[in-house]
Amino acid sequence: MSQRTALSGLHDDFIRRGLRLPHLRLLVALKSTGQMSGAASNIAITQPAASRLMGELEKIVGAPLYERHAKGVSLTLSGSLLADKAHAMLRQLDDARNEIRELVDGVRGHVRIGAVTGPALEIVIPALRKLRDAFPEIEISVDVETSDKLIDSLLSRDLDFYIGRLPHGIDARAVRMRCIGPEPLALITHVNHPLTQLRNVSIHQCLPYDWVMQPPNGLMRREVETYLLENGYPIPERILSTSSLLLTLGIISETNAIAPVARSVAEFYSRRSGLGGNIALLDMVDEIAISPYSIVLPSGTELSPAARRVLSALELQPEHAP
């Protein structure tokens, strides 16, 4: 037998010899009270039963664990060592009980959510601020992506749920949805763009410029193009395609290009210094609104208690209640 195999067999040696939790509880109580009668009372057994347990424990350990004297009992070095280990182990079991209770109550756990950019700024950030104060033991991961990528993560169970839309071609039976509301868009460009000097800008005035939008299969791009066509506008002739918000902001801050983005995103970045400080919202005649976004959950799967708590916090954002 190898040394590693021999050592692995010793991991539960005391257990195989008959060690039970009452032995450890009694030993801890005995160190605390210094009296066999007091230790027995602490764990709700009789003194004779306590003496028998201590006798069993000494046989299991193979060493004397306590000594009697006129004032009661005191632990030997071996007894004190085992009592300290037992106390630590019992505390760990109490900690495990508390952590399990927190998991069941939804105040501990790991929750993975996704969101498209607008709701991430408008709904997720305020909810996270409140959750961090109220439930600091809940670990929350947030994936900000387009809906077509979020749905893949949801169906592969890499997300508990996401805020966005259901892309075309996805079997609706695979998900559950809770509608939040429409997403108004804004057209943004740099602060010195010729159109920023005008009020009541029309879509026709924007069309001669480059537009920065998602790639052709992007859900937001299809929504914008559908809105334009349904309202009698042509598709912009010059479109720069990217799914990167950072690249979009960089392009419009350095060129005369125009980009349709969620209004919440436009307002967030236009208020910031640095790159965002060079971004302005065009004063449009008509508000552009695309299809509502929803909370999308996997069908047939129950959320963990922690995930349900996070979901409730998102739904309770007053300005976005369904």
TrEMBL record:
InterPro entries to which the protein is assigned, alphabetical: HTH-type_LysR_regulators, LysR_HTH_N, LysR_subst-bd, WH-like_DNA-bd_sf, WH_DNA-bd_sf
Organism superkingdom: Bacteria
Domain spans labelled HTH lysR-type: 19-76
Keyword Isomerase tagged: no
Pfam families: HTH_1 (PF00126), LysR_substrate (PF03466)
Keyword Ion transport tagged: no
Keywords attached to this entry: DNA-binding, Transcription, Transcription regulation
Family label: Belongs to the LysR transcriptional regulatory family.
Name of the protein described by the UniProt record: LysR substrate-binding domain-containing protein
Species name: Roseinatronobacter alkalisoli
Phylogenetic placement of the source organism: Bacteria, Pseudomonadati, Pseudomonadota, Alphaproteobacteria, Rhodobacterales
